[in-house]
Each structure stands twice: as structure tokens, then as C-alpha cells.
Design brief:
Four copies of one chain form a homotetramer. Helix content of chain A is about 35%, strand content about 20%. Chain A is α/β, with parallel strands linked by helices. Chain A folds into two domains: about 160 residues, Rossmann fold (3-Layer(aba) Sandwich); about 170 residues, Dihydrodipicolinate Reductase, domain 2 (2-Layer Sandwich). In chain A, helix 1 packs across helix 11 and helix 5 packs antiparallel against helix 12. The longest helix of chain A has 20 residues. Chains in contact: A-B, A-C, A-D, B-C, B-D, C-D. At the A-C interface, strand 6, strand 7, strand 8, strand 9 and strand 10 of A face strand 6, strand 7, strand 8, strand 9 and strand 10 of C. Strand 13 of chain A pairs antiparallel with strand 13 of chain D.
């Protein structure tokens, strides 16, 4: 249960109907630690599918709503001891902003999938709404939930690798190698439809993860970007491949290689950072290990769960080393920390430092701005 | 919720007090898919700690029992729509048998940690009780819950690697490199105390996992074993290291390398099997991949979640390839399948083939017998 | 011995004095197969060190020359049955062009380290000289000598990975993380001195290898480049880091990540190529294996020496699989093939197809042009 | 050239006719550093093939002898400044002993392939002959020539991993998965013919390498062995698979897993050693790296060529880190050191400590005795 409230946090979900991948991930992530409880939802644009999903999840039928507006109003009208404390938004991108607004206005804390919105202007609006209401707003940049990513951040902050010089971030997937969007694959269809995805496909979908990861781990600010976007699959109009060069404040340089048409790649997010005293290397597909390299000393391999890790990494860990944790556990770390921060705020307390370690509305705004800069640079073929 | 019952399965837990590692794993595994619900427990030999754990888990205080006997009786007396359907037994080994008996007698299905019992005679007794009552009995040999282990089994059953010739199973850990049992580490203390662990330490703890894995994946029957046990840490009396050679029915040979004093190893369970047409290699620490090797063709790396995998492997998978699943997810597969088989039985239905794929009392008996044979061979320094 | 001549090929060396790294590599590469014999040299700008090296290598003292001009003249004046057939040029870059000219003019075949020259104009001059004289000119882009790189080329040529879409080439080293050029490290000193290295440091030194590798393996022509160069080590004037985006004829895109200040990296040359039917991945630090990835089939790992490889890969192999070959063996493949082509030409014969597989003056020119384009794009901050 | 003699060492070869694998390896290993020169040979039991090989290698036809006895006599009769200093014996096992005797009697230093002989009695005889003549006798247990294996030895000698407790050595190959001995494969034919191979096949061929490696790296003495041998390929009479348990003096335990029928394995020699302070892991197929593991600190990966390595490892290295060295280079280290020790002895000097680091007749005897013990234990099914 939520330690600040002495009960589970009650939440509702918008999106995540039967068969939707990311909704199911959010539910498993919320369930894992027994601190969240799903009690309501508006799971689909089809009322029938909403009700079906409510049944499958064992919800009270009265709380399987036809649409998110009804849900926001109805939940707000419920008594304190039963209405939802928070909402999870797992819809296509274009709905993030209106749904989030509706629930913030209803006094409900928000967990929202990334990217926060499809335009920087909307993101700014949302940020102001969050600040005005004083509610918690978490963005599920889930890769920063990995314990070893938290360790990477601490290693860099500690100065052990010296002054940072170079960042190489790659995110290579292959799932869009074929025109799935024509083949009825639902996720591909909306991600490659500007009306639902917004103006960017690959960059908004996975480039934004890489950007957030770099930001979280290194703390570096981007001064300028140069980008090249491509639609490498014939007939596709939105970008499925992007290369972005960056100049960071302070002089470090970066390369972002982002693609969804690297045939045969699965979910190849990787981050390498080099300072003047050493480098680090992390791969999402082997999330439990971090490699540190040094000019004149052996490479070190740090593993999740080990006693020598930082408090932040240990806080985010459930199992001993050698007992693999994965994607859901990292995702659950966003939920656990967001939930505890929500619980603390509801209880009028301050959440602990380690509990406040999750991506929020400020990270969300930063991500949307990165996407916009990349689009502009590619269009103008120059550094912006 | 449990699809055969249309509600969550209610379960209680024996053992798994505050700070216990494996109890927490069982609870996460049960929670992950939203098909099990914890409603009762006798978590510790200390009534106070029982109550504390009940509070932390948000249980009804009336169902945080002082001891397992009270719990079995009290739950049996509850009405059908509230009493537990099943019990999870996560105590030290010596209690598995009496606790399981108590709940079987009370008509409660059982999920029991391995090894099933500390003697083959007890295991046989338990098996008879299971058969008599018609209840479900699952043993959490959790490593066979990995989707890719299921794929390994299918590859071998399909005959693709030919007639089996050689099995190399290793389970190397390093956590008992120091005398933790003297240092107040609770798990080490009971695992190296024959009164609680039974006559074997390393073999019963992790050798039994390796044995079950070999059995599950290859289907081979052991004809004879030769074993060498050692207590490599000075002052220790129970074995912390074991090497076991095996002769399988049909002529194949096996080697089991089991140790808990391989300093620096984490949880190094690995299985290699060679037939006359190829070999396979699986490592628990990279559980999402299976390597197949062939005499005159490139090595293949199969990854969890891929479309080319067998139905059994796909059934056990929650995420696409490249999105790592881990230890808890594999453990949850035991719970999900056991729970569905329980649900089906309660509903008077037959569970599906894929749902019946979990280790049961027969596997449990087999495991205890393996341990006994190993002990005897080592004592007599000969093949038995 | 050289199979076309029935004797070893006699060669001299320019550069490669005591302690020089690359000269020793050339000598080992030439010695490995017993087809080349070192008989003369002008190893250093210091006559004393020339003589010392001649002594250490067991040369006839009369053929340890004070400088390359004397050597070219004196060797040309020797009788046919003793003078050198070929020369190896292993000097700093600025000398490649004059030394090569001197020996071509003397009728001597040339093996020259890369880059061929320090300007495209010089490279063109040299190309004309080669064509005029009809002599063999090999450039030691040694990484294309690896058998598995040859296999990669054949896999792509065969169309197995479909139409090419994306190339990711990286060459990450860390040896220039500190200002070795100030610390008296000889190789660093000349590579970061424009008078000896030419106008480019990192790009000419290792970017040119990456470029040649991409060209050799994919056959793709570059239409345009966008480059960002940086001197990431304070106080350094030449570039030690480069990122290059490329547009290939036909629409494929490329990224080249080149750096010599990735602290802790050793010799991280890696090539990934993706087509619409699959991708390949090769890493120089594990040169004996090639990974092929496919959208809906297991990854394959091809290993050097295996019977299923192409004739070109098998021709370049000396040992069975599992018996590692390395850098020297790949380098020796350049020597063996260049030597056989030289031998065949001297014998008035045609070398076999597999024997003509080594980088030549045309590749050399292409490489120098790539360096010049990169420098120009970086200067002008635009696609060129 | 040989630094102690100021000229190359002249050697002859017995065995290694056209197409023989290991003879060619010895020649490349001897050629690599330019310190050995092949001048004579008796390459085959067929005089014709002897002459053909002599021609192909560019030998003086007078020194391509019909058989090894003629060669030993004729070379002994040549003047000091032309006769061979040493002989390489690369024949099937049964000839090692008589050939070695003939050349020792002729005052010629010996490099002999492993195992030294086919019986311990013969090995003892040979050892006495070596001691009597004062000649150098090297046995090409080539895997101890890897620089990183030398580093492993130094790490253990330094006590960094504490008191040794456990050794796991495996040597898994797959090349004998099929009955190549029936298919005319020459090497398989003699290795599985007791008249040529001696009483053991897999153990003598590769088990002896594993044994030497363990001995070299750990220095441990074996007190007792228990072995299980098997002929896993139907119709084969000699063993193609062996499992050996060992008890070392001082209480450490060992497991040797040796097989040539692990379908799909290439040359899988691997050594793991665990002490009470840490463990090490080395794999021949990635020979340039050594992993050190510790109970409470990150795993370290040491790489060949790095400045932090021991003098012995650096002495054995030709290239910087990241520039892979392989099998031939390790083999060449045996030749270089043996050659320098021979040269020193011929020059009446003492070779340096690092130069005397190669396997000699004492190691050879030890290896043959290991094979005999294993055979006896397997026959008697008990510890011996």
C-alpha cells in the first residue's frame, strides 16, 4: 500500500483498451508493488470496448466510462473515499493534452505517456496548469526508471568520469521496416498519422526517450542541433529515421542516431558518455549492467542490486544481482515514485528525495521542445 | 482476474515476513497479472511480526494469523465467498511438508517453494495427499517459467537438435563465499542449518533448480549419478559446492556444476544441451535469449517475444522483443498457470494445455529424490 | 613463397624505424605467410637509426639506406635477381606522396599506408603515375582484410539483406584523451601536426578507415556529406572528434561517428548496415564474427573459418573456427593478395579474382576526397 | 633475428606435409617475429610429399628428406654454420617419442607438439634424455602462450583472489559430432586410431591442454581424479567425451568438462578459478580479455596490451589493446621464448626470466601422467 496514505492509491485509466500494448504495461507497472489500485477507466473511443475492458479487469461496471470527459466529471463527483486519486493517460499523442487538462481541472493527479503533447505551446499550457493546481504530473519516460540508469547519473554527477566531452545516444528499432501502417497494425497506424501522432513520428516516439535519457543522466543543456530526417520506407511520409548532432553548453558534442527501420533491431536504446577521465556505456536490452571505461584501468561492469551502488540505484531495485529485472520493473519505478509523491502531497507531507525521482511536467516540456527543434533544423538544413 | 472464475483468486501466505526475500517475490509474481489477491497470512514464527506484515500489506487484521495451523482452521471455517482458495508456502524447507499437509487437509490448493520436502519419504506422503484430495500443488521451480526455457523445451521435443548426447548444467553463485551464516544473515543461517534446510544445502537450494530445469527442457531420465560434495569455506559443515556426473537413460551424459562459493558470481544458472544435430545454450542472467548452434550453419539467437517462437513461449510472454522481462515475470508465469489450473478445477472445467504447464507435486518428488541420490553417491564415493 | 614467381617477393621499407608501431605490423604481416622477404630499407630520417634498424632486422648493411631517394636509386641499379620488387611506405602522411613517386619512377611496386596522400590533388597525381607505369599500388586499409568483412560484402552483394537503407559506422578510440602530443608520444605528435599529418587528424587517421570499410562492404556512393568537427581536448588545434552524416546515391543514409577522445575505448571500429530485408553488424574488436539480423527470424552469427562462408572469406582465412585470427592476419591478407598480384604481373600472368581483392590507388583517391569533403562541410556548416 | 645469436635460428620440421593443419600453424608461428628460419624437413611418410612440401616452402631440395632418421643423421653431419639448431615435431602422437629421441641424440633442440608421448613411461625416458643432453625441449601447449593467460597466472600468484577453492575448466568442441574418421578426414582418422593417437583420444588431444592451462595458471597439484569417459557417437571406440573431477592438494576442487561432440561448439576452451577473495574467467575464443570478479565490487575486464598488465603479459604482446591478437600470435610466443632460450644456451648465456616462460619436458611428463590417471579412474569407476 502507499506508505504515506496507509492505503492503495486509486487510479483510473484513459486509453489502454483490449489488446493495447502500453496500457497493459502501465497496469502491470502499477500492480507490481501493491501500491496502486485500478478502479475506473475510459479505455477506448468505442463505448463497447470500454465496457468489455472494464469487465476483463474486474471493475465496477459503473466506473467503466464511455469517454474521458464523462469519467473526469463523474469521478470528481464521487465521495473522497472512493474517487480516483490519479489518472493514467495512455492514448495516442494528440489526446494527451486535452485529457490531461480535463483531469487536472477535476483535481486529479496525472501520469501521462510521452511525449507530453504534440506542440511546445500545448506543453507550456499544461505546465502552467500543473503549477496552478499544485497537482503531480508524471511523464512515463520509463527508461530513466532503470536502477542502473540512476547509477549512471550518480557516476557522472560524482565527477568520476571528469568533464563531459561526448555523448552518443542511439535508439535503433526495426519494427517499422515494413509498412505496417498499411497492414492494419494499430500502433503503427496512429504513430504514422500526423493527426494522431503530431508532426513527428520517430523523433517523438523514441527520439524523445533518447533525449530524456541523455538529459537525465548527463544534466547537459543543448545549445544547438543539426538534424537530418528521412522516410526510408518508400511511400511513407512521416520520418522513420533521424540523425541529430548536438552542441551542448560547455562545449561537449552529441550524436543521436534514431531509427525505426533498422531491420532486425529490437529495442536498441544505448547511451555512451565520455568525459576526460573515462566513459560509460549502457544498453537498454541488458538493463542490469553498466560499463565504465577508463584510459589506463580495466573496464568495470556494475550490476544492479550490488552493494556498491548508490542509494538511488538501490532504492529502485527489488531483487539481488543476477536475478534479472526488466522493462516492467523500471516502469514500475515511475509509478512507485510518482505514487508516493502523490500520496505524500495528499497527506500534506513532503515526499523523500528518492521518491521525487521521476520525470515530471518540466521534463515533458523539454522533450516537446527538442522534437520541435529537430524538425526545424531538418527543414532548414542548418544548425538551430 | 482469473478467467475461469471471473474474479481474482484469493490466497494466503505462510512465511514471507518483513524483509524476507522470497516471500516478496511470490507476492509480486502473484500481483503482476491481476489474477491473484492476497487476503490472509501467517508470515512469521513471531506473532508480532505476523501482525506487522499484515498491516504493511493492508490485510484485514483478523486474517493475519499467529501460526499456520490456526490459519488453516480459521480459513476453512470461513464462508466460500471469502476464504482463501490457495496458500503460498515460503518458509524454510523443513516446514514445507507439515504446512502443505495442513492446507491440503483443509481443502486449500497449494503453491510451495522448492524443494518440496527435506526427505523423499515426506515427498511421497505429500504426493499421495495431493492425489487423494484432487487439489492442485505447484512447486515454484521458477526458472522453468521463463518463456525462452519453454522454447528450449519445444526445440528439443521437435527433434531439431537430434538425439541428445550431452547435458552441461551449471549453477554458480558466490553469495556464500563468506560465512554469512555466522554473521546473522537470516537466509544463510537457515540454509546452512540441517534442522531447517534438511540434509543438503547447496544441492537442495540450487542443485534442485538445475535438476528440474534439465528434466523440464530435455525430458531425460537419470539412470545413475556420481557426486562429489565439498564444504569449501572453512568451518562450514554442510556442502556449499557439488559436482554431479550423470548417466541418462539412452546413453547421454551429464555434468552438473553447482556452487555457492564461486566468489563474484551472481546467479549463474546455465544450461547447454547437445544432440547429434546441434546444441542449445541458455543463461538465466540473459533470460530473453536462446542460442542454437549447428555443426555447419551459423549460430542462431532466438529472442523472447519473437513471432517465430512456439505457442508455449508466446503464451508466457508479456512484452515485445527488446523489452526485457526478468525473474519476476518468469515467477509470475508459475502463478498465472497454477492459478488458472486452480480456477478451472474450481469451476469444474479443464484448464488449457498451456495453462497446465507448471511444476507440480510429481516434479517435486523427483527433485527430492535427486537430492537424496546425490547425497548417497557422495557419501559412498561411487555411482548410484 | 610467391606462387607466381616461385620465390619470395623482395621488398624494402621506408619508415618503420626502431619502436615504430605500424612498421613492425607491416613486417609481421609480410612475414606471416612466407611470401615476402625484407631485404632493404630507409627506416628513419636519422641515418644512424636506419642502420640500427637494418642491423636488428638482419639486413645486408649496404641496403640499410640513409634516405628513401638514395634507396630508390641504388635499388634500381641492382641486378634483377637481387633488387627489391616492392616497397612498403610506412612514414607519416606527408611523405607518402613523394616516396611513392620516387619508387614508382624507379619501377618498384608500392604498398602504402593510408591515407594515400594529404591532398586530393596529390592523390590524383599519384593515380596517374600508377596508371602510367602499370605498377601495382596497394593502400593498407587493413580492416577490409578481415575474412568476415569480406563475407559481409558478399552478403550485401548477394542481395540477402535487400535494398540498403541505412549505414552506421563508428570508429571510437580513446588514446588521444590526454594531450599525448605534448608528452613526447611520437605517433600523437605527428598525427596532430598539420605539417606531417596534412589538414586532418582524426578523419584522415581513422575516419578514412571507416569510409573505406563502408565503401568496400556496401559499394554505396556518397552524394553529400554534412560534418561537424571538434577539438574536444583543450588546447588542441586539429580535430580529434568528427560526426559525419551522409546521403548515398539511391537514397540510403549514413552516420559516421569518429572520435579519438572516447576515454576508455580501444579500437572501436564497428559497422552496421540495414537493408529492407535485414541488417548486419560487425565489430573490429571481435573480428571473427558477423551478425545478421532479420525482421522475423533469429539473428545469425557467422564465424570465420566456417564451411558456409563465401569463397572470398575462406580464401582469406588461415585457421579453423574458434582459433582466433586477428589484426596481423587481416593485414597479412593485404600483403598476400597484393604480393600475388605483383608476382603475377611480374610473371606476365593474370592474378586470380580472389588475389586481386585488396585496396588500390583508386580506393586511395576516394579516401582522400572523402577527407576533403568532410573538412569543407564542417567549415561551411552545410551539406556539400 | 634471434637476439642472443645475432642471426635467425635454423630449424627443420618433422610432419606437417601439404594440407596438414598444425604444421602450417607452427610455420606461421615461427615466421611471425623473424627469429626462426625453416631450412629442412621430413614432412610426410611419403617421400614424394616430402619433396613436394619442400618445393612449396622454397627449401633446398637436398634438405627435404625422405624420413626423420635420414634427416637427423644428415643434419648432424652438416657444418655448424648451416645445420639445423632445432626441430619441430608435428606428427601424430605415436611418433613424438622416437622422433624426439633421434634429434636429441643428434644434439638438436626440440619443439614438440602435445601430448609429449603416448605413455608415461616414454615421457619419463624422454625427460631423462633431455636432462642428460642439456638440450631445450618445448611442448606446444600453445594456449599458455596467450598474454592474458600469463596475466591470469600473475593475478593468482599475487594472491589478489585469495586462497583458491574451485577450478572449472571446460574444453568443448563439436568437430567430431559426425564420424569424420570414417569419412577420410585425416586428422580425425589418426586421432581416433589408438595405434597413432595412443590409448586416449579426447583427453590426450584437448583434455591435456585444459590440464596444462589449469596447472600453469593456478600452480595447483592434483591429488586425486575421478573420471567418466564416453564414446557418444555410435560406433566409435575411443572416448570423445570426458568429465573429470579433481581434488587438489590443499583442498580445492576442480571440474574438467571435455568433449569433441558438442555439436556447434568451435574451440571452447574456458577457465574459471575462484578463490576466497574473487574469481577469474578466461575464454580462448575471446583471448584478449580476462574477467575478474569480486564479491562486493564491480567485475573488471582486463585487456591485452593495456599498461596495467604484468611484465609477463606485456612481454608476450605485439599490438596495442583493441587490435586483436589470436591463436598464431600465442603460438608464436612459445616459439619466440623457446627460440630465445635455445639461442641463449647456444651462446653460453642465460635466457631472461620472461624468455624461459614456455612449457617444457617437465610439463610434458605431467600432461601424460594426467591422461593415464584419467583413463585408470574411468576404467575402475573410482577416485585414483
Amino acid at each position: 500500500m502507499n506508505p504515506h496514505l496507509g492505503r492503495k492509491l486509486r487510479y483510473g485509466m484513459v486509453g489502454g483498451g483490449p489488446g493495447a500494448f502500453i496500457g497493459q504495461v502501465h497496469r502491470m507497472a502499477a500492480a507490481l508493488d501493491g501500491e496502486w489500485e485500478l478502479v475506473a477507466g475510459a479505455f477506448s473511443s468505442s463505448p463497447e470496448r470500454c465496457r468489455e475492458q472494464g469487465r476483463l479487469l474486474g471493475l465496477d461496471p459503473a466506473r467503466a466510462y464511455d469517454d474521458y470527459r464523462t469519467m473526469a466529471e463523474a469521478e470528481a463527483a464521487l465521495p473522497d473515499d472512493s474517487r480516483i486519486d490519479a489518472v493514467s493517460i495512455v492514448t495516442p499523442n494528440h489526446l494527451h493534452s486535452p485529457v490531461a487538462r480535463a483531469f487536472l481541472d477535476a483535481g486529479v493527479h496525472v501520469v501521462c505517456d510521452k511525449p507530453m503533447t504534440t506542440s511546445a505551446a500545448d506543453a507550456e499550457d499544461l505546465r502552467r496548469a500543473v503549477e496552478r493546481t499544485g497537482l503531480v504530473f508524471a511523464v512515463t519516460y520509463n527508461y530513466t526508471g532503470y536502477p542502473i540508469v540512476k547509477e549512471a547519473r550518480r557516476q557522472l554527477l560524482s565527477g568520476r568520469l571528469g568533464t563531459l566531452r561526448k555523448v552518443v545516444a542511439e535508439y535503433s528499432q526495426g519494427w517499422l521496416t515494413k509498412r505496417l501502417e498499411e497492414a492494419g497494425q494499430k500502433q503503427a497506424a496512429w504513430r504514422l498519422d500526423p493527426a494522431q501522432a503530431g508532426p513527428s513520428s520517430a523523433v517523438a516516439d523514441i527520439g524523445s526517450h533518447a533525449h530524456n535519457l541523455v538529459r537525465y543522466v548527463t544534466g547537459l543543456e543543448i545549445d544547438a542541433v543539426f538534424a537530418e530526417l528521412a522516410s526510408l520506407v518508400p511511400g511513407r511520409t512521416m520520418e522513420d529515421d533521424a540523425s541529430v548532432l548536438t552542441r551542448f553548453a560547455g562545449g561537449a558534442r552529441g550524436v543521436f542516431c534514431v531509427s525505426q527501420v533498422c531491420a532486425g533491431e529490437e529495442n536498441g536504446l544505448r547511451l555512451r558518455v565520455y568525459g576526460d577521465a573515462g566513459g560509460l556505456d549502457w544498453r537498454q536490452e541488458r538493463p542490469d549492467e553498466l560499463r565504465l571505461r577508463f584510459p589506463d584501468a580495466p573496464e568495470q561492469r556494475l550490476t544492479r542490486g550490488s552493494p556498491y551502488l548508490s542509494a538511488a540505484a538501490r532504492h529502485a531495485t527489488r531483487l539481488p544481482p543476477g536475478h534479472p529485472e526488466g522493462f516492467v520493473e523500471a516502469f514500475a519505478n515511475i509509478y512507485r515514485n510518482a505514487g508516493r509523491t502523490i500520496g505524500a502531497r495528499m497527506a500534506g507531507k513532503e515526499a523523500g528525495t528518492l521518491e521525487r525521482d521521476f520525470p515530471d511536467h518540466v521534463d515533458g516540456v523539454r522533450g516537446v521542445r527538442f522534437v520541435e527543434s529537430v524538425l526545424r533544423s531538418a527543414r532548414e538544413e542548418r544548425w538551430v
